[in-house]
Amino acid sequence: MKGVREQYIERYEKILPSIVKDINDDIMEILDNFERIDRVSVRPKSVDKFFNKANKKNDDGSLKYTDPLSQIQDQIGARIICFYLQDVQPISDEISKNYHSIEEVDLIPESENEFGYFGKHFVFSIPPNFVNKYQEPPTLFELQIKTLYQHAWSEANHDLAYKAEKSLTTDQKRKIAFTAAQSWGADQIFKELFGDLSN
Hints:
five-stranded mixed beta sheet; 8 helices
């Protein structure tokens, strides 16, 4: 019997590319009338990232996922990057009309005195017509909707801070926090400017 890694490699090579294309094409069509979208990207989770996630353990040492091929929800991840904060909710509403939402979360820092990761996250069911030709496809995909500044900060933070091989110094943490505040501020200013100039 094939192990989890081998099974996912087979899914990654033979099943996910077709579903990724269907979801990408569908989202592009749904958002055809939206002018302020920078990009739409849909991609499968890499084999290494999937396998690392599949092997995560709970505090007691037990595996977090007993059936990772069916339990891991982000085997397909989609991302919509828009210009301004005003664009996030209309895009969310339009996407939600076309997909069945399992989960919707607005990710914000815990305290109003903190700056950090912002974004709107969904877990959607994959439409049956995208997967009914496969025996054991994934049934869900994750979608993030972010502004340009939210996206830029989160990507840089993930690369520099989250994946850092050593602990950040106090000054380095402050620099990360400073850039987060700047990104938040830029979004607020462009939100105000767009409101002022579009009236």
